[in-house]
Design goal:
The protein is an all-alpha fold. The chain has a domain at about 80-115. Helix content is about 65%, strand content about 0%. Residues about 1-10 have low confidence and may be disordered. It comes from sediment metagenome.
């Protein structure tokens, strides 16, 4: 009788993904940096503290946009391989770091915006 390895491989894959996810969460800075705000950002923060902003219901256009975003986030993803030069990968990582996100996420957003 042949052994079924697919469940073992799938479990290993799940554990590996969880490990990668936890590593990314642990290395991400999720605390906002309020010490280095631009003047515009500081003005918004001050207005928030004074209670000058109030909640309002979303417009129909905003609801449609949010629904589209939600649909996009629920789409299934597929892992692919992309060959890049060392230089392009380095530039990609620098650009992602400027945005404060992992380079894979940055690359996905570039593809989504341009395809």
């Amino acid at each position: 009788m042949k052994k079924n390895f697919s469940s073992k491989l799938y479990t290993h894959h799940e554990r590996r993904q969880e490990s990668i996810y936890q590593n990314n969460i642990n290395t991400m800075n999720i605390e906002p940096d309020f010490d280095n705000l631009t003047p515009e950002e500081q003005e918004i923060e001050d207005e928030l503290e004074r209670g000058e902003y109030v909640s309002r219901p979303a417009t129909e256009e905003e609801k449609k946009e949010l629904a589209a975003m939600a649909r996009y986030t629920l789409e299934k993803t597929r892992t692919i391989s992309v060959r890049l030069t060392e230089r392009d990968l380095a530039h990609l990582k620098v650009a992602a770091a400027r945005e404060g996100i992992p380079y894979q996420t940055f690359l996905t957003s570039l593809i989504h915006k341009n395809v």
